[in-house]
Amino acid sequence: MHCILFLLYLFVTAVIGHMQLFYPPPFNASNNPHLQGSADEFLQFPYNCCGRQTPFPCRGYLDLLGTDAGAPVATWSAGSNQSWSMTGIGNHWGGSCQVGFSIDNGETFQVAASYPGNCPHRLNGDGPTGQEFNFTVPADIPSGEAIFAWTWINREQEFNMNCAAINITGPDSSSAAFSVPYSQRPGLLIADTGNGCWSPKTTAEVLYPNPGPDVIEGDNVYTLEKPYPPEACGY
Fold first, then answer.
1. What is the pTM (predicted TM-score) of this model?
2. Helix, strand, coil % (nearest 5) of the chain?
3. CB-CB contact of 82 with 73 (8 Å)
4. pLDDT tens for residues 81-102?
5. How does 64-88 read in b/e, with b if 16+ C-beta sit within 10 Å?
6. What range does the record give for the signal peptide (predicted)?
């Protein structure tokens, strides 16, 4: 009986278990302090899952910018070391993630950091305390309101993206120097959304063709492969 229940648990998490951004709290999340009304119960599900067409980018929540519900949830200084975290009910034994920013209301997104492999952390469960990742805010990103974006591609060719409003302040004396200007950083990889770009499946995790200057390597449990075809994936 215990074996059957365990197998049932594995099946359920494979079907419905996914992850979402926890910190900074994304638009319309249950932990967003500016939430108006009901939280989005589908934030952890991949794009276009479950018979629902998911608006791109940021799951269609960019219309909250400039409203109380879309107010910044954190203040970060340019060049500072920060962290972000995930939560959910199934980490899919890893994948690959990117985080980045938009300073033009979601028209474009530039990479801040790439995490090829072991993202989420395979062995750290599903809660935010075990799924925290560090990165550096680009030192020359302009001050003002920006959109922080998190993307995750698992080994089932599924893509998810959550976004949060962040207030960016000028760099302080401890801020790191930048190696690549923010304006010259690559865009986030978008795959598995019906855009013609596909990630590898099952036996490999995504190797980002344009990862940007800050790359946090995984654990090498799975091989890393680039998405395909190159012309549809921007490289």
1. 0.91
2. 15, 30, 55
3. no
4. 999 999 998 888 899 999 999 9
5. bbeeebbebbeebbbbbebebbbbb
6. 1-17
